[in-house]
Amino acid sequence: MKVEQISIFIENKSGRLAEVTTILGFAGVNIRALSLADTSDFGILRLIVNDCDKAITALKDKGFTVSKTEVVAVEVPDKPGGLASILHVLDKDSINVEYMYAFVERCGANAVIIFRFDETEKAIASLLGRGFNILEGEHLYGM
Amino acid sequence: MPNYFNEEFETLPRTALDALQLKRLKAVIERVYSNVPFYRASFDSFSITPDSIKSLEDLQKLPFTTKQDMRDSYPYALFAAPMDEIVRIHASSGTTGKPTVVGYTKQDIENWADLMARTLVTAGAHKGDIIHNAYGYGLFTGGLGVHNGAERLGASVIPISGGNTARQLMIMQDFGSTVLTCTPSYSLFMAEEARAEGVDFRKLKLRVGIFGAEPWSESMRQEIEEKLNLTALDIYGLSEIMGPGVAQECFEGKCGLHIWEDHFLPEIINPLTGESLPEGDKGELVITTLTKQGIPLIRYRTRDITSITYEPCVCGRTHARISRLSGRSDDMLIIRGVNVFPSQIESILVRIEGVEPHYLLIVDRKDNLDTLEIQVEVDERIFSDEIKVLQGLARRIEKEIKDMLGVTCSAKLVEPKTIQRSEGKAVRVIDKRKL
């Protein structure tokens, strides 16, 4: 029910994103989804990739600080109000979203929302109870 | 015709000054040998007794006193007077968490006021002046030291302390300040603020500025004199020895700072070997206090680099002159007048859970104010994939440094291995200030 995501610490200076993606490219790692959170000094690059462990090893070898985090991927219909329907449920059940990002499936009528919750298990139970489809990690990695 | 505060002592002929120094040196050696276990043990280990001191040259037989010795004696173990005779306690930053503590007897405070009054007169101040004292009041000796001297002189002192520059400028205009005392960099900061607020220094009554507590240069003097329309003079002092008023540049000569030799015995040494250097050579200033009762120090290593001259001065004072300080023989940084050792910052970082001390201090001067940036490498132990956690860490570092050291800094989180390591010893400080 959970998806592995890697987070990379990068300084806010030119060329760092290019460096990370080049390292992953050489390692044969494919990026499935990404999001970048940044401040004036530094940023955190969050990635879902086809091979988490390979990506971590490659980046650590090059001196990057990397961590693995568990996130939840929820499928919603790709139409107006789709995301709102999930957020209402979370709000009603008082579940905090630390951060989230979204992407649209290559073929099909759905979007995928990646969530990081402070209480992951409770969030999963809440969403399943309301009939939302939570994607398995394998599904995303192999997409 | 120069003015003196105490003409007899300020113009004492060399032979008489030497005789006075020897008499006072013997007394202070006797005092510390009898009253301070640290000195007794240290002299004993060199097989020296007070009787061994027969000439001023004999001083060189004695071991040095260092800031580390003061730290080891925290807080009162170097005091040579019983606590019920100590009427004032000041402190300055030590090399790690604990400050360096100094205590003054009533007589010490009297002498300090006299010497500071002498210092003010040497800078051209007199009774009737309105002294705008922007040195910090508190544990730091700057504020109260200048204050007592100004009162002793009979001048009017405005105890404004540091900060709130707009208010400083208003008071300077309205109260008719004639003498300004603060750090040289703060005076330039004031000049910038004044320009922004439309205050014209040429219309103020300021005549003299007495600037110290941080290193500065001849070119900075020219800039200050031009922008603040006053005569800028250099003052020297350190809390371990007394506070402000140990040495002062004279208004007439404006060439070197007279060190008050009736109270302080200066030497210049090679900081690496400890051997005494001849007149004119650059080295570390070592001071023996001749009259202090609370905490007399024998051959205290100031770590300040200067040279000394005994040439006669146009002002008629016979006391030797030290040249403008040109640096330190240790890694102490002076940031906005506050003494900071890299080791202090390191010990604060280590205490903050998870932060390994791979850090770099970048000191710069922007708009005439010193800035301190602390770069800390983010490794797996402190990395979080939430922005707010990392930002919280940076803010916490800034707050701890401010609380412990009194210095405002900005903490910057950087990638691992960003900070250069050379030959196993990391470069810890980059000082970009051009003085």
Outline the structure in words.
The complex is a heterodimer of chains A (143) and B (435). Chain A contains five helices and seven strands. With 143 residues, chain A is of the alpha+beta class. Chain A folds into two domains: 3-69, VC0802-like (2-Layer Sandwich); 70-141, ACT domain (Alpha-Beta Plaits), CATH 3.30.70. In chain A, strands 1, 2, 3, 4, 5, 6 and 7 form a seven-stranded antiparallel β-sheet that branches. In chain B, β16 (333-335) and β17 (338-340) form a beta hairpin. Classes of the chains: A alpha+beta (143), B alpha/beta (435). Chain A binds chain B through residues 5, 7, 9-11, 37-39, 41-42, 44, 46, 63-67, 69, 98-99, 116, and chain B through 378-380, 383-387, 390-391, 394, 412-418.
Please give a quick description of this structure:
The complex is a heterodimer of chains A (143) and B (435). Chain A is of the alpha+beta class. Chain A folds into 2 domains: 67 residues, 2-Layer Sandwich (VC0802-like); 72 residues, Alpha-Beta Plaits (2-Layer Sandwich).
Strand and helix map with partners:
The complex is a heterodimer of chains A (143) and B (435).
Chain A: E1 3-11, H1 16-26, E2 31-38, E3 42-49, H2 52-61, E4 66-77, H3 82-92, E5 97-104, E6 110-117, H4 120-129, E7 133-135, H5 137-141
Antiparallel strand pairs in A: 1-3, 1-4, 2-3, 4-6, 4-7, 5-6
Chain B: H1 7-10, H2 14-35, H3 37-45, H4 67-72, E1 86-92, E2 100-105, H5 106-122, E3 130-133, H6 141-153, E4 156-158, H7 165-175, E5 179-182, H8 184-197, E6 208-211, H9 218-228, E7 231-238, E8 243-249, E9 257-259, E10 264-269, E11 283-289, E12 300-306, E13 308-309, E14 321-322, E15 327-328, E16 333-335, E17 338-340, H10 342-351, E18 359-366, E19 369-377, H11 387-405, E20 410-414, E21 421-422, E22 425-426, E23 429-431
Parallel strand pairs in B: 3-4, 3-5, 5-6, 6-7, 18-23, 19-20
Antiparallel strand pairs in B: 1-2, 7-8, 8-9, 9-14, 10-11, 11-12, 12-15, 13-14, 16-17, 18-19, 21-22
Helix pairs in contact in B: 2-3, 5-6, 7-8, 8-9, 10-11
